[in-house]
Amino acid sequence: MRFFIGLIILSLSNLAVGSIDDYFPENRVTSSNYGNTGLLEIPSARFAKEGTLRFGISNSYPNTFTFLTANPFPWLEATYRYTEIKDRLYGPYAFSGNQTYKDKGFDLKFLLAKESYILPSISVGLRDIAGTGIFSSEYLVASKEIKDFDVSIGIGWGRLGQLGNISNPLARWSKDFNSRNSLVGVGGTFNQKDWFSGERASVFGGLEYKFKKYGLRLKLEYDPTKPDTGYGISLPSKVDSRFNIGLTYNIGNLGDLGLSFERGNQFRFSFNFRGNFSQDAKLKKIDPPKIKNTQNTKISHRDQRKYLRNILFKLKDEQIFLQGGTVKKNKVEVSVSQTKFNSQPLAVGRTARVIDQLSTDDLDELQVNIMNGDIETSSFSFSRENLDKALKNKISVIELVSKTKIFSSTGNQKYKSHKFRPTVNFPEHFWGMSPALKHHIGGPEGFYLGQLWWRINSNLKFTRNLTLSTVIGLDIYNNFDELNNKSNSTLPHVRSDIQEYLKEGSTNIARMKLDYIWSPKNDLFIRTDLGLIEEMFGGLGGEILYRPFNKRYAIGFTGHYLKQREYKQLLGFQDYKVFSGHLNTYFKLPQDVLLQVHAGRYLAKDTGITFDISRRFKTGFRLGVFATKTNISREEFGEGSFNKGFYFSIPLDLYFSDYRSGNIGFSMSPMTRDGGAMLNNHNSLFGIFGETNRDSIDRDINDLIK
Amino acid sequence: MNKVYLILTLIIFLESCASLNLQRIAPNYIDAYTNIKGSIFGFQDYPITRDLVDNIPYASLKLKIGKGSAGLLILEEKQAKNLTYVSADNVRIVLHNGKIIRTSGLDNNLVKIKEPKDSFKKFLISKEDEISYYTYSTYDYPALIDMQAKITLKKLGTEEVDILDTKYYLVKFQEIVENSYLGWKVINFYWIDSTDYFVWRSQQSISPLLPIINYEVTKKPTL
């Protein structure tokens, strides 16, 4: 018995220790031609690590795939892809010249079972689910690692089932699975009735051999697609062999390079860039607190003015700004604002550290009220003794937090009543400028049209809470004059006139609006705004948000009276007017998943609901998808059937050795249509206050003594 | 149209034109360019001068990890023959006869190394030109216990070395580290004073997951 217990402990300890294989040069799962993890034409049951983004191109004749693949969870992989089909033209020569055909596609893959010692990893996937369906396939695939081999075997339907070497096993369960009707659709429609359907399916398989020492993978597969017969609108391609072979090389953390020989007559070259944003910063942070531990700088808090002035100057070194402070007996309370740190506990911890270093031993308590914008969102009340111990690593952060009062009283803004309040000379002006890019991808006139412009940001603060924010765009270079595909939408052209906006407004006032934001009661925030709210609409309106500090949800309402802006995007307007508003709910789910539901009236006066689900990783990297369904028909909406898209944002912080706020955002909607279009709300209340509740503080609490 | 932009631009720069703050012009792009340039060609070292070193009352060494900036590490502890140096950002390296035997604060750390007792020093004082033996290294993140490596030490001759404007004549020798399973093979170098066997400069790869570590002793500890 003891032997067995010993054996179990030994095996568990081995699991904890890890493996020497972790020390090989990069040898990670690689992408298939289509962008999803797999071999070449066929997928595998493998997944990249959660939080991974992969952008790549795989080039051959006739198909070149450009893809972006994301792994928001360890069990989910999503791929968005553009395919260039070189043996077909986009349209009539007079309209799109000799531009080749472009197709958009979206894939999903789900992990059903993780690999164990005996059983393989099993996944199910859908390829090209809401595109034109040229590559539409469904599959169930299993992958098993046997020494240095990784073997994948699966069943494919649709394009992956073209070989038809077995009858559809699901047809035994229901005859509905026998028919697969729409090979090619308009695009953007989910043909779920066709999923896993067709009289025949294919068994496919392949293997990868890992040359671990060299970061290489040799891939060999039997291709179940039949390019020689064509599929949908694809033209037949010559096939000399159904075996494809390829080699993929991991270039460290950067990505992969691949070369393959397919169909017995074509080479394919592929490369991709890869990043895992769930892990810590790409660069080690070298941004320690500036305050030094010295006895000489200590000042008694009994001389309140001198003491708080000293705190003000020392906090400024940390890029934290004292908005007010009060000393009562042996307690000091300060209100601070900052824009340097994404993590509120980090800013609070740095503030507490400065106060601790500057105060004499008779200070017993300190309270830090941290502000976002001009509103105190939470307060941390520390005992000096416990803070000291934590800073000297004598107690843990968790112990410090358990002895610290963390609360929020937004309805009672303490900075207004502090005895010491530094003078702020309004109006305050903040500005910045930088080059920026605009893109128009996948249009019939050209695959990529774009603009390089100079962006000038200005924030003019008239009083606390009242700000005029302006963005001016100056054109440097663009090729938008090639756009000639006017909107044929039957709905009001609230978004589909994008081409006119891009062409005529290449130098523009992208935004110029006045915001007033305040908190009249605890956990309640209100914003009113007026002006050129976004590039296509101006008007007036507001937003109300209830964000209970100790809860994981928030609820709000946004409403605006709007007028459509002129294409030149100066100060003029067109005739179209609309009231657009939404009831907004936000739920923080486990694993830092945020579910947003917005229900209401959209810009084209259609009514409906938007679901937005995203995951935030420890680093602040966020990955999300959204979809909107309103009361307009598929025909009225046009290509795409309904509004949908995905987005991600990468914190700038990750790429710098110092702390800094800001994100690199990317959002993609396959089609710019009028249905389900929402106003772009700059300064949305949830954007400002959504990450200030207790849940977010607890998530970042270890930053308190960094 | 031009009037509108003129007025707006004037409003924006009304307060700013007196002193145009260049740090507000594309600061992230400029910083990103610096970072990208650094990650390809190496980051600029922090200025470390003889005066700076002499003014610090502790023994010190200049350390550079991969393409990162070289920084100064201060002797924190001396225990038996193990010297622990610490950096401002809490990276610690422990040297034993000039060889890195432990690290902390890096992405992957050498926790322990087992090798024949004083093998390193014995070779220094021996008359042999080449010896071989095995070491067993333990790492964290990811955890790995007792990774075997074959070590081959070779003496290469004498070289003049300049450390912060002080010249030393030192014996250079190389250490070939091999793990055939991983296909990991690196060559480390040591520059040693033949009179007291003190290692003044070294270039070492201590883990397959870490870049090359270069150091030179800027102020020698009292041994």
Mind explaining what this structure looks like?
The complex is a heterodimer of chains A (706) and B (223). Chain A contains 10 helices and 31 strands. In chain A, 12% of the residues lie in helices and 43% in strands. Chain A starts with a helix and ends in a 7-residue tail after the last helix. In chain A, helix 3 (304-317) crosses helix 4. With 706 residues, chain A is mainly beta. Chain A has 3 domains: 26-276, Beta Barrel (Porin); 304-424; 428-463 and 465-695, no CATH class. Chain B is an alpha+beta fold and 223 residues long. Chain B has one domain: YmcC-like fold (Beta Barrel). Chain B is built from 4 helices and 12 strands. Chain B has helices spanning 2-13, 27-41, 50-55, 119-125; strands at residues 60-65, 71-79, 82-86, 92-96, 99-104, 109-114, 130-140, 144-163, 166-179, 184-192, 199-204, 213-219. Chain B has a 12-stranded antiparallel beta sheet. At the A-B interface, strand 19, strand 20 and strand 21 of A face helix 1, helix 2 and strand 8 of B.
